[in-house]
Amino acid sequence: MSMHLYCPIEGIGSNIDNHRARYPLYDCCMSQEVLSPRSLRGDELLKAAGHAGVVWAGLFALGIGLGVVVTAHGLPWWLAPLISGVLFAGSVEFILIGMLSAGASVPAIALTTFLVNSRHLFYGLSFPLDRIGSRIGKSYSMFALCDEAYALITALDEQTLNSRRILWTQFGLHLSWVAGATAGGLAGASFLSGLKGLDFVLIAMFLVLTIDTYRSRPDMGGAALAVTAALVALVLAPGAMVLVAMCGYTVTLVARHYLTRVPHARPQASHA
Predict the structure, then answer these.
(1) Cβ–Cβ under 8 Å, residues 27 and 13
(2) Mind telling me which residue stretches traverse the membrane in this protein (predicted)?
């Protein structure tokens, strides 16, 4: 008489059931290992690294430039990890360093920060925050929302989009930025002041993200509207190009949605 041991995991599918019938003891041991919470967390980290690892590296290089700018303005090196970790606002941090060294007032700094980061208001319209269940996770995701995070996460399909994938992607961006700023601050302007190309990292990164997003979700009309909005904003309001372009782009997208949507057919009333 033979004895079979089965793993008490149900609802996996017919293929898994067939596999259990052939290799019951092996399947039980492997299922406990592969489907453990620790394994799932590590798996999502590896997937996030595979999808966003190149952007993490680019953000690290850009963070080095921030650290160099901090020390070049005569500020202590520890301000680089402090500003990059607490603010995590990218371009605003470069502006903030110049304003701090020039002795700008707090209201001026606050207004500048709001105007530069106002584009994030539009990100919330389509960012999948509802995929994150915990309040702490949602709070961190809102804090760590940046251009790179929005581009990477919104490019994912719905089947692979989950809470851990979103948070690992954002945490990797945050950690890379802080680590790069710390490295640049410690190295100092004396070692890295002559390093060429750091100022082009951000432009190259956004170009790559734009191409990847278009490849995953090709929309020629949306791309044409974005370019048109940017050119119009550059001509009409060069001092506030980002804000004007985002407003114009959002308005045109909403208008296109209402003009091209298919009206729902009303059900016909049945007559006795």
Answers:
(1) no
(2) 48-74, 94-116, 171-191, 226-251
Distance CA 35, CA 7 (A): 12
Backbone angles phi and psi of 6, in degrees to 5: -120, 145
Residue with tokens 């090709």: 218
- 47-105 pLDDT, tens digit per residue, is 889 989 888 998 898 888 888 888 888 888 899 999 999 888 877 888 788 778 778 77
The 3-state DSSP composition of the chain as helix, strand, coil percent (nearest 5) reads: 75, 0, 25
Task: Annotate 80-114 with b (16+ C-beta within 10 A) or e (fewer).
Answer: bbbbbeeebbbebbbbbbebeeeeeeeeeeeeebe
Degrees to nearest 5, angle at CA 81 with 163 and 38: 30
d(CA 32, CA 39): 10
Phi, psi of 265 (to 5 degrees): -75, 130
Residue at token pair 């202590």: 76
pLDDT value of residue 263: 62
Q: Which residues 6+ apart lie within 8 Å of 170 measured at CB?
A: 140, 141, 144, 145, 149, 153
Q: pTM of the predicted model, to two decimals?
A: 0.62
Vertex 167, ends 161 and 171: CA angle to 5°?
A: 140
pLDDT in tens, 230-270: 899 889 888 777 778 878 888 888 888 888 876 655 555 55
Could you tell me if residue 161 is left (phi over 0), alpha (psi between -120 and 50 degrees) or otherwise beta? beta
Annotate 138-156 with three-state secondary structure: HHHHHHCCCHHHHHHHHCC
240 token code pair:
């506030």
